[in-house]
Amino acid sequence: MISSLLDLQAEKFRAREHFKDLEVLNAFRESQDRVISIALIHEELHEGKGKDTLNFSPYLHRLVENLFQTYTLGNADISLNMDLEENIFFDMDTAVPLGLIVNELVSNSLKYAFQGRDKGIIKIRLNRGENGKTVSSKHENRKEGYGSTNFILTVSDNGVGISEGFSMEDSDTLGTQLVTALVDQLDGKIDLKKDSGTEFIIRFSIPEKK
């Protein structure tokens, strides 16, 4: 419903005879993508017949396939490689921010990574990390006396890459600020590698329920 309302509002701008600023329309589309990423979670939970956790890998497939359909890439041949560990279940507090993170990183790759190129590849990997010390000291304090499971999410592409001086902490773009805030919400850590394209590595821990 919210996505449809955003689309109707965007149509008003498209209908203006002298409207040439695509920035507003792009902002509407990006907002729709973020809403859809959350809506898909609710759909998956509904199909789960009342379960309060989400099997995240099938959801991630649906989310990324939707993004590939959303963005027009011209003649660019962009392939997708997904390596997702099965039976990883997250509750809403984890699934929503993690879905939004993937939405931002993949859509950025689709929009910018392959400009001027005929082909490319986007890779997404999600797996359990090694057991041991939790990712964040904040997270560790919160669940003192409880075990935890570490996870690693990697989103990468072999595109044109990011400028050498780019910094996640100092970026003024909304998408980057959103990713940084969401990783912090998960009490996780994010690393950026700029070799042969772009690679984001997000590490976070989930306390075990007892």
TrEMBL record:
The keyword Transferase applies. GO terms for molecular function: kinase activity. The keyword Glycosyltransferase does not apply. Residues 93-208 form the Histidine kinase/HSP90-like ATPase domain. Keywords: Kinase, Transferase. It comes from the Archaea. Signal peptide: none annotated. It holds the Pfam family HATPase_c. InterPro entries: HATPase_C_sf, HATPase_dom, Sig_transdc_His_kin_sub2_dim/P. This is Sensory transduction histidine kinase. The lineage of its organism: Archaea, Methanobacteriati, Methanobacteriota, Stenosarchaea group, Methanomicrobia.
